[in-house]
Write a structure and sequence with these properties.
By secondary structure, this protein is an alpha+beta fold. The chain is built from ten helices and twelve strands. A five-stranded antiparallel β-sheet has the order 1-2-3-5-4. It has a three-stranded antiparallel β-sheet with strand order 6-8-9. The protein has a two-stranded antiparallel sheet with strand order 7-10. A hairpin with a 2-residue loop joins strand 4 and strand 5.
């Protein structure tokens, strides 16, 4: 390829492949991206490919891959870029299972700053995913955004008079990370990238994607209509991450973060304490965060218990188990209104049952002993009087015969006094 010699394939994508190469005059290593042969003869694809180089070069950000050269050489479209040493985030997730909060906080903060700069320049990436986040192997490590191949560029943003756009109804991107509007081929704005970054964060922290399905149709339904997944129901996440993810994946773009900068600021507030502690703070199974009124998306602040997500597509009914967020004092976590409190109140319930049992035993003992006494008194009162016993008194010697006689009991025959 003229000034460059291709040496070995580094990675392959949907439109092209990236090669390790050498600049023949400078003898310096670099990476060369070329179009795949099946699309190299399509003029519109070639133009889109070259515009990728323009988009990345225009940003001039330390967190965007650096572009050295681009063009067409011997009918082969190419982009010459810096050769990076490290791994993409997809490989980091596969290797570690879950990315620690302190790493994710740093990487996503850098990506969000780069994306904010792109949005200010009128560029929407439109294909953010773990494969397009490169972790550079340096001390300290840092992240770069790759592959602006299907970026949406505002007309005139790159001094491009052609204004290449997307055909109506054409879905571009990687389905697992698409926003609802992108998945349905509707008009998009910079907030579609924020949805993708929220999904990346979920996958990096928990090792799995939030929206999954066996077919593209089912995946679109999951993204557009099914209840919003709660990260803490899948695994341990820092306190506050649930609400950050929920806001980032609002189906109505107006209820997401207004910009990548604000999304980065909120992510720092959520993940920085966990990063400083060096530990992962767990959330309980089935627990969701409480939004304070100030942090609620517009339209929810005056409606306690409003359901997260926009209206579902016609004919698709939202599940009543969708996340319910309530206003009130901010706490790390609070129970969903529809969930029982059996686990938390089991000790109190046992204590109350024990007290009730003791009271019942006391009542039984009182009734039994009191009843026995009452029965005894009734028996004594009902018994007939005993018959008196008559005895003949023998006067003791010296006793006076003139002593007052003892009156006879009633009904007894009168005694005869001595003469």
């Amino acid at each position: 390829m003229g000034r460059y010699r291709l040496e070995s394939v580094l990675r392959r994508g949907g439109m092209g492949s990236v090669w390790r190469a050498e600049h023949l005059k400078l003898k310096s290593p670099l990476a060369i991206k070329v179009l795949e042969p099946e699309v190299a003869n399509d003029p519109s694809m070639v133009q889109r490919f070259l515009r990728e180089a323009q988009a990345a070069a225009a940003l001039r950000s330390p967190n965007v891959v650096q572009i050295f050269d681009y063009g067409v050489d011997e009918q082969q479209a190419f982009i010459a870029m810096e050769l990076l040493e490290g791994e993409v985030l997809r490989e980091r997730i596969a290797r570690l299972g879950r990315v620690p909060p302190e790493e994710l906080f740093r990487f996503l903060g850098e990506i969000l700053r780069a994306i904010h700069k792109a949005h200010e320049a009128g560029i929407i990436h439109r294909d953010l995913k773990p494969d397009n986040v490169f972790i550079v192997k340096e001390q300290p490590e840092f992240a770069k955004v790759l592959d602006f191949g299907i970026a949406k560029v505002k007309r005139g943003a790159l001094d491009d008079a052609t204004g290449i756009g997307t055909q109506t109804g054409l879905m571009l991107g990687t389905p697992y990370y698409m926003s609802p509007e992108q998945a349905q081929a509707r008009p998009i704005d910079p907030r579609t990238d924020l949805w993708s970054i929220a999904v990346i964060a979920y996958e990096a922290l928990l090792g799995q994607r939030p929206f999954r399905a066996d077919s593209l149709g089912d995946l679109v339904i999951a993204i557009c209509t099914l209840p919003t997944p709660i990260p803490s129901r899948t695994g341990p996440v820092p306190p506050g991450f649930d609400e950050w993810f929920v806001r980032g994946t609002q189906r109505d773009p107006a209820r997401r973060f207004p910009s990548a900068r604000e999304m980065a600021d909120e992510l720092e507030r959520v993940l920085k304490p966990a990063a400083a502690a060096g530990t992962r703070i767990t959330s309980s199974q089935g627990i969701a965060p409480t939004l304070s009124p100030a942090s609620m998306p517009p339209g929810m602040r005056s409606r306690p218990g409003a359901s997260v997500g926009t209206k579902s597509s016609p004919g698709v009914k939202e599940s009543p188990r969708d996340l319910e967020l309530t206003t009130g004092q901010r706490s790390a976590m609070t129970r969903l209104p529809s969930e029982p409190a059996a686990k938390d109140s089991s000790g109190l319930l046992l204590l109350l049952l024990g007290a009730a049992a003791l009271i019942l035993v006391a009542v039984v003992v009182f009734v039994v002993t009191g009843g026995a006494r009452a029965i005894h008194r009734a028996e004594v009162a009902a018994a007939p009087p005993a018959a008196p016993t008559l005895a003949t008194a023998t006067p003791s010697p010296g006793a006076s015969l003139n002593a007052a006689p003892v009156p006879p009991p009633p009904g007894a025959a009168p005694a005869l006094a001595p003469r």
